[in-house]
Each structure stands twice: as C-alpha cells, then as structure tokens.
Write a structure and sequence with these properties.
It is a single chain. This protein is about 40% helix and about 15% strand. With about 280 residues, it is of the alpha/beta class. It has a single domain, classed as Alpha/Beta hydrolase fold, catalytic domain (Rossmann fold, 3-Layer(aba) Sandwich), CATH 3.40.50. Strands 1-2-4-3-5-6-7-8 form an eight-stranded mixed sheet, sandwiched between helices. The chain is globular and about 80 Å long.
Amino acid sequence: MKLLYKVGFIVFIFYLFVCLYIYFIQASLIFFPEMPDRRLHSNPSSIDLEYENVNLTTDDGVSIHSWFIPNNKTPVTILFSHGNAGNIADRLDSIRIFYELGLNILIYDYRGYGQSTGKISEAGTYLDNRAAWDYLLQVKKIPPEHIILFGRSLGAAMASQLAGQVRPGAVILESASTSIPDMAAALYPWLPIRWLTRFKYDNLRHVQGLSSPVLVVHSQDDELIPYSHGQQIFAQAPEPKMLLTLQGGHNDGFMLSYVDYSIGLQTFLRRYMPAYRPVQ
C-alpha cells in the first residue's frame, strides 16, 4: 500500500510539474516570431509594388514596423493582421492578391516580430492593431467605412477585437479559431487547460457584438484549426455575414483555392462596401 501511495504521489508531482510548465512556457507555444527568423528577407518591391515603410507608436510606447502599399484603383484599405509565425515579409502572396483586388494595404508586425520592438503579449497585440488603425484614420485620413479589418489565423483575434471597439466598413476573419483555450483543450484534454491558459484570443466572444459586415473564410481541409471553428464563429456573428469555404491546408488554402478565394472576397466587398471599386 505504501508503494502505491508513493507511486501516486510521484505521478501527482509530475502532473503538477507539467501544469506549471505549460502555464509558464505557453507564450512560446503560441508565438513564433523567429520562424524561420526575424529578418525581413523581402519586401513589396520584390513583387514590383511600391510601398512605404511606416513606424507606428503604440499607446504604451512600442515601435511597430509596417508597410503601406498604395493602390490608386480604390479608396478602400485593408488592415492586415497576420498569423503567429514569421513576419510581414512572409505575406507577399496575400499582399499581391489584395493589390490585384484593387485594395490599399497596411500590414504590420506585432511587437517582438520582424523590426517591431517590445515583448509579445495578448494585450500588446491589441494595442499594435489599434496603432495601425489610428494611423489610417489620423495620418492617411481614411474614413472608418473605407477600412477592412482582416485577420488570418491568430490575427483574426486582433481584427475581431478591434471591430468591437470601432466600426470598420467590413471584417474578414480567415482560418480563425474560436479561442486559444478551445484549441488547447483539444490538444491537451488530460490537463485543466482552461485554468492554465493566460492567452484567450476569444473570437467567438468578440464577433457577437460586431456591427460591421463579416466574412468568415475557412478551409474544410485545415489541419491546424478545424473547419468547425469557422462554422461556430460564423454562427455567432450577427448579420450581415458571409461564409467562404476553401480547400487546402491552413497555410496555403487561400493559394490553392485562389480563384474561389478572389471571387469570394470580391463578391463580399461589392455587396457590403459601397466605396469598393472592383477590378475589371
């Protein structure tokens, strides 16, 4: 019996150690700013697009690096919050697509990513996105109704959170999870993960209070964030809304479904953003 108690105690201590380990290292499980590294290996000129280097300053004094890619075909601008790995230099395929759709683009790196300073945190990423929004309004003088808040994967939480505080012309949430605790609970069902997660990024809660048109984009083949997450987000979002279903993986669905993706985005913008001028 003593041996059984001893084994049980050892198992309990090990379990407690794992819980504490997950609690303290979870930031490194969510954010990958150095994948493959923090250097900007390219820029929009690599795809023959003119751009402006813009350094934003957040309310807490962090310097956020961004690019503004102007497009004379439309007054509509897309504010691009990217996923959790790499930096803005890894998003040239998306930049090209948005440019071909006739949009101005502002894409930024979160604190701790690329050339941005600071230490990553959930609250910090929300401040980073807000600084980009304020830049478009105050410096570029773009009306809120001419701005699309776009977020892919982790970035969807930045878009949905900000859309609950301001009123953009539209919101696009691509490959989004319902929340970090939901994702973690599926990965670690044997841990009290909802108590352990310090990061929420709760898209499901954020979308419930939105007043702008919402487009939810998700691939049926997404191997990282199940399609069911996109369906749940779409179900919770108020009208007006659209669901665009793609094929392909989490990171390449928008490319593998390029035609459907481009047509779907253009259809949504033509329907809900009067200022948008579709490319002929």
